[in-house]
Amino acid sequence: MRITCPHCGARDVQEFTYLGDASPSRPDGLEATEAAMFDYVYQRENPAGRHRELWYHGAGCHAWLTVTRDTRTHAIEAVEPTKRPKAGTAA
Amino acid sequence: MSTKQPFRTADGGLIDRTQPQSFRFDGTRYEGFAGDTLASALLANGVRLVGRSFKYHRPRGILSAGPEEPNALVELRAGARREPNTRATVTELYHGLEARSQNRWPSLAFDVLSINSLLGPALTAGFYYKTFMWPASFWEKLYEPLIRRAAGLGRAAGHEDPDHYEKAFAFCDVLVIGGGPAGLAAALAAGRTGARVILCDEDFRLGGKLLAEKREIDARASSEWIADTLAELAGMPDVRIMARSTVYGVYDHGIYGVIERVNDHLPIPPAHQPRQRSWRINAKRAVLAAGAIERPIVFAGNDTPGVMLAGAVRAYVNRHGVLPGREAVIFTSGDDGWATARDLAAAGARIAAIVDPRPQIDAGLTALASRIGARVLTGGVVSAASGGRALRQVTIRDASGREQTIACDLLAVSNGWNPTLHLTSHQNTRPVWDEAIHAFVPGQMPAGLSVAGSAAGRFSLAQALEDGARLGSQAAADCGFAPTVDAQPPKTDPEGVALAPVWRVKDGKGRSFRGKAFVDFQNDVTDKDVELAAREGFKPVEHLKRYTTLGMATDQGKTSNIAGLAIMAEQTGKTIPETGTTIFRPPYTPVAIGALAGHHRGQDFRPIRLTPTHQWSKDQGAVFVEAGLWLRAQYYPRPGENDWLVTVNREVLAVRNGVGLCDVSTLGKIDIQGADAAGFLERVYINGWKALPVGKARYGLMLREDGFVMDDGTTSRLAETHFVMTTTTANAAKVMQHLEFCHQVLWPDLDVRMVSVSEQWAQAAIAGPKAREVLRGVVDAQHDISNEAFPYLAAREITVGGGIPARLFRISFSGELAYELAVPADHGDAMMRALMAAGEPHGITPYGTEALGVMRIEKGHVAGNELNGQTTARDLGLGKMMSSKKDFIGRLMAGRDALVETGRPSFVGFKPVDPNQRLRAGAHFIGVGKPAVMEHDEGYMTSVAYSPNLKHWMGLGLLRNGASRIGERIRAVDPVRNGDIEVEICNPVFVDPEGARLHV
C-alpha cells in the first residue's frame, strides 16, 4: 500500500502506523461517564467498505492522518491531516 | 553429432557452442553449452530420468521448458549453498554446476520406496485423514516421521546461507511484466513516449516464446525483430531491462514484488555482490505479458520420462539445439502441436505418428504430415504410455476403438494453453472462463494493470504484438505521456490456433485405466483421486484441492489445476466454470526467504543504535547489552573480575560510598513548548503540573486510555511555557506517538508543540555522596550548584566546560545525591571524559545498567518489569498520585471495579528468609503449606537483584493484597528452575526508606 501524506506525498505504508476507526470522539472532562468512556475505548464498527481511520506518519512528518479507505479493496479515497487549523485562523 | 552430447543437434539454437560448460548430475560429469538450462543440457546428454515422484516414487523426467515444471526438481549446489526443489527447466547452466536428484533412495535408478506405487490404494486422496486416524499420539511419534521419510521433496541445506541478499526499491511509470513479443512491443511503445519503463523477464534471455519458435515478423526471422527491439530499448535512457527477474506478486496501489536472480547463474557470487535482490517496484501502470502455460493430457502412464509438452519440445529443439527424442509421436488436440512435428522433423527426428482427436484437420496440416513422412491418426487418442524409466512405446486408439502400439522415445503432448494470469488474481479477483479458447482468462484486473497477448488468452503472435503496442502506449498515456505516431503493427507469418481440448483419455469402455494417470505430477494426484473426492463429497474446488492436495506444493498446480477441474466437472455433470477455479496468491513462483530478509538477518536483523558516549564506554572496557535497538553499557569489568556479579557489586558500592557515572542518553526526551504546555501535561499525566515551578523537575506517570500504566519518567519545567519530558528507553517512540495523538487528534486547540530530542542530547547520571564535588569540576563557575541553590529536583539550563550549553537535573534513580547532566550529543564523549577527569580524585567509577538496576531495586523504583502493560497505578502503590481535580488519559477506565478491587496483586518487596538463598524473577507466590497449583497462585516476582549493601538477594513483585501483608511469609515457587523458597514480604524500599540521602 501507499498513502499520499498531505505533507510528504505518496509514501510506502511501512512509514505509517495504523490505529483504527477515526470516528469515536473522546468524552472529555470530569463530567464524562464511565459508560461513555468504555464505548470510546472499546466499541468499534468493523465495516466492509468505506472506513475513516487514523494513521500515524511516524517515519515521516509525525502527522496523525485521517485516511478514508475501502476495507475490501484498500482503495484510498482521501487522506487529510487530523489536526485542523482553529476556526477563524489562517491555515 | 557430438558423442559427448548425443542428443545435441548439429547446428542451430541460441546456445554458444564455443563455450562448453561442464556440470555434474548425481555425481556424473556431463557437458553442455552456455545458453543451456540444466534441463536442456541433461536432455542433450540423453538423461531422461531426473527425479522420483512425491508419494509413489515414480520415475519422472522433464515435462516442460519453463517455470511451470512439476517434475524436474533438483537439489542445486552442495553444502551450505544447497537449494532444494530447484526447477531444472529454469536453471541456467554454468561451468561447475552440481545438481542431485531428489526423493530417491538409495539411487535414482533403483528406488526402494517405489514400492509405494504398489501400495497405491492406501495412498489415495485423503490418505492422511483416513489411514492415520488414531491414536493421536502416534502422529508425532510414528506417522509423521514415516510420511516425511517416504514422501517428500528436496532437503534444505541445514547450514547458514553464506551468501548475501539485497532489498531494493524502484519507481517507474510503466512496468512491463514479461519479455516475450507482447512485452517487448509494450516496452517499446511505452518507451517511445518518454515514459520511465521497467521491463522484467524471468528468463536470462529476452524473447519469451519466440525463442522457442521459428517465426517471421515483417518477413524476417523473429530473432532479428527481437535484436532490433532490444537495441532500440537499450538506447532509451529511461528504459531499464531486468532479465532473470521474476515479478512474483502484485500488491496494493501499484506495488510489485520482484526477485532478481543476480548471481544464480554463477557457482558463487562475486565478492560483495548479492546472490539475489528483492525489488519492490512502484509502478503507476503495468502491462502483464507473461505468456501462457501449455496443458498436459491425463492418460495412463502420462508421467513416463519422455512424455513432454509439445511447446517445450519446440523450445529444446529451436532454442537449445537439443532433440528430446529421435522417434517421436505427437498427441495434439489443436493445431499448435503440429508445429512441433514440423520443427522436430526439421531437426532430424523421425515423426512416427501424429495423433489428433479431432475428426477434421486443416488440409495444410495433413500436407505437412505427408511432407515429413508422419502417419496421421485423426479422431484417435494416445491411451497409454509405458517404458518405466524411459518411454518405450505408446498405445494409440483410433477412431474405431482399435488399439495399436507404436515404439517411440518421445511423446509430445499438446492440449492448448492456459494464460499465465496468476498476477491478475493476486488482489482476490477470479479468472473467468472463455469458452472460445477453452481456458480461464483474467477477470477483473487489479487497478493500473492491463494484460496483453497470450496472458489475455490472445495466443497468436500477431495479437501479442498488437496488444503490446496498444497497451504499452495506453499505459504511458495514462501517466501523461503523449502517444507517438505509430507504424502499423508488424506483419507475422500465419499460424493455426484451432483447438478441441481432451482433458483425459479413459479406457475403451469409458472407465479410467487401471494404470495411473496423473493430473498433478508434483503431488501424485491421479484422475482416480479426483473421482474419489467427488464420490466422497469433496466437490467444491477448494475441498478438492485440500482433500487431494491437487494444485499444492512448489508449482501450485500450474499444469494441473485445469485438468482437475475438468474431471470434477465431468463427475458432477457441471461445466468447468460452474466447478470454479482456485484463486492464485503470491508468490507466482517460489521465493527464497533469504531474498525477502535481505540484509536483515543475524546481528543485522534490526538496526543498532549507539549512544554518543559509546566509544567512551568501549574505552572503559564495557560489556554491552541490547536494550531495544540500543547497545547500552551493562557493566565495566576490571582485570581479575571473573564474575559479572563481582563487577556489579563493586560498581554499586562505589556509587553508594563515593561517586559513579552512568550513561543515560537512551532515555526518551521530548521537548514540549507552548502556552498550553502545562495544561497538556495535566491531561497526559495522572499527577498535577500547573503548579510546578520553573526550574523544577517532577516524577510523572502516564496511563493508557484503558487505565493501565503506559510509562513513567521525570519532566522538568525550564521556562513558563517550556518543558522537557523524559520517558523510559523502551517506550520513547510509543510515548512520542501517544503525545502527538493526544495533541493532534484529541485536543488540537491546545497551543502546544512537541519534538523528540532523544538523539540531540547526551545525558549522564552522576550519583553518589561525592557527586557534587565531581560536578563542580565541569560546571562553569557562575552556576551555583550548592545544596541550597540547587536542591533536590532542581532543573536548570547551565553551561559547562566554558560555555557549552547544558541542562542539569537533580534527580536520582539510585537514591543517592545524584544529578543528570545533559549536553548536545556532539559533546557527549567530551562530557564523559571531563567528568572522569574531574572525578578522578574522588574515585569516580563508571557503572552500567546492571548496577543501575540493582540500585533501583534497592530503592523500590518500578521499571519495565513492573510497567508491563498489566499494572495500574494503584497496583504499583502510586494510586495517590492520581489527581481528582482534573481529567487525564485513563482516569475513568482506571476506576473500573475490577481495577480498584483490593485483592489485585500489588507492589511489595521480598527478601529470602534464609539470607543465603537466591531469588528468581518469574517465581510465583504460593502460601506456605499449600500445593503449588494455579488456584493457590497469589502473584509473581517481577525483579530480583543481589544487594551488596544488604548482603542478600532482594525482590520486587506483585502479590495479592500485598501492601497489607508486610511481615508475612510466603513461598516463591519457580518450577522451571526447581526453586521453592520461603520469602518475607517487606516494604519495597530496601535502602534509605526515608530518602535522606537524596537531600544532602
TrEMBL record, chain A:
<dbReference type="GO" id="GO:0046653">
    <property type="term" value="P:tetrahydrofolate metabolic process"/>
</dbReference>
<dbReference type="InterPro" id="IPR038561">
    <property type="entry name" value="SoxD_sf"/>
</dbReference>
<protein>
    <submittedName>
        <fullName>N-methylglutamate dehydrogenase subunit B</fullName>
    </submittedName>
</protein>
<dbReference type="Pfam" id="PF04267">
    <property type="entry name" value="SoxD"/>
</dbReference>
<dbReference type="InterPro" id="IPR006279">
    <property type="entry name" value="SoxD"/>
</dbReference>
<dbReference type="GO" id="GO:0008115">
    <property type="term" value="F:sarcosine oxidase activity"/>
</dbReference>
TrEMBL record, chain B:
<dbReference type="InterPro" id="IPR041854">
    <property type="entry name" value="BFD-like_2Fe2S-bd_dom_sf"/>
</dbReference>
<protein>
    <submittedName>
        <fullName>N-methylglutamate dehydrogenase subunit C</fullName>
    </submittedName>
</protein>
<dbReference type="InterPro" id="IPR028896">
    <property type="entry name" value="GcvT/YgfZ/DmdA"/>
</dbReference>
<dbReference type="Pfam" id="PF17806">
    <property type="entry name" value="SO_alpha_A3"/>
</dbReference>
<dbReference type="InterPro" id="IPR006222">
    <property type="entry name" value="GCVT_N"/>
</dbReference>
<dbReference type="InterPro" id="IPR006277">
    <property type="entry name" value="Sarcosine_oxidase_asu"/>
</dbReference>
<dbReference type="InterPro" id="IPR029043">
    <property type="entry name" value="GcvT/YgfZ_C"/>
</dbReference>
<feature type="domain" description="SoxA A3">
    <location>
        <begin position="515"/>
        <end position="598"/>
    </location>
</feature>
<dbReference type="InterPro" id="IPR027266">
    <property type="entry name" value="TrmE/GcvT-like"/>
</dbReference>
<dbReference type="GO" id="GO:0008115">
    <property type="term" value="F:sarcosine oxidase activity"/>
</dbReference>
<feature type="domain" description="GCVT N-terminal">
    <location>
        <begin position="614"/>
        <end position="886"/>
    </location>
</feature>
<comment type="similarity">
    <text>Belongs to the GcvT family.</text>
</comment>
<dbReference type="InterPro" id="IPR042204">
    <property type="entry name" value="2Fe-2S-bd_N"/>
</dbReference>
<dbReference type="InterPro" id="IPR041117">
    <property type="entry name" value="SoxA_A3"/>
</dbReference>
<dbReference type="Pfam" id="PF12831">
    <property type="entry name" value="FAD_oxidored"/>
</dbReference>
<dbReference type="Pfam" id="PF01571">
    <property type="entry name" value="GCV_T"/>
</dbReference>
<feature type="domain" description="Aminomethyltransferase C-terminal">
    <location>
        <begin position="907"/>
        <end position="992"/>
    </location>
</feature>
<dbReference type="InterPro" id="IPR036188">
    <property type="entry name" value="FAD/NAD-bd_sf"/>
</dbReference>
<dbReference type="Pfam" id="PF13510">
    <property type="entry name" value="Fer2_4"/>
</dbReference>
<dbReference type="GO" id="GO:0046653">
    <property type="term" value="P:tetrahydrofolate metabolic process"/>
</dbReference>
<keyword id="KW-0560">Oxidoreductase</keyword>
<dbReference type="Pfam" id="PF08669">
    <property type="entry name" value="GCV_T_C"/>
</dbReference>
